[in-house]
């Protein structure tokens, strides 16, 4: 397994993610495109000291961007929906 800091790239702070956090005790992360569910689960448990029940991953294609008449693509990325055990919580903003 790689370093947990390499697998978890960033938390995704969105409206949908905050709703999932309140209702279903889930957290969204941007992860490496070659990471699998087992690696994501171990990385989240190691970094945040929580118990992970379930991980769902989703591959997202990069958008097509144009500069003049040249078209290119942004890189592909992957996001993970991580379901935490009841009572566990990850607070990214450090609020009380």
UniProtKB/TrEMBL annotation:
Swiss-Prot/TrEMBL keywords: Ribonucleoprotein, Ribosomal protein, RNA-binding, rRNA-binding
GO CC list: ribonucleoprotein complex; ribosome
Keyword flag Ribonucleoprotein: yes
InterPro entries: Nucleotide-bd_a/b_plait_sf, Ribosomal_uL23-like, Ribosomal_uL23/eL15/eS24_sf, Ribosomal_uL23_CS
Pfam short name (any one): Ribosomal_L23
GO biological process: translation
Example of a GO MF term: structural constituent of ribosome
Domain of life: Bacteria
Family: Belongs to the universal ribosomal protein uL23 family.
Function, as annotated: One of the early assembly proteins it binds 23S rRNA. One of the proteins that surrounds the polypeptide exit tunnel on the outside of the ribosome. Forms the main docking site for trigger factor binding to the ribosome.
Oligomeric and partner information: Part of the 50S ribosomal subunit. Contacts protein L29, and trigger factor when it is bound to the ribosome.
Protein name, per record: Large ribosomal subunit protein uL23
Species this chain originates from: uncultured delta proteobacterium Rifle_16ft_4_minimus_1997
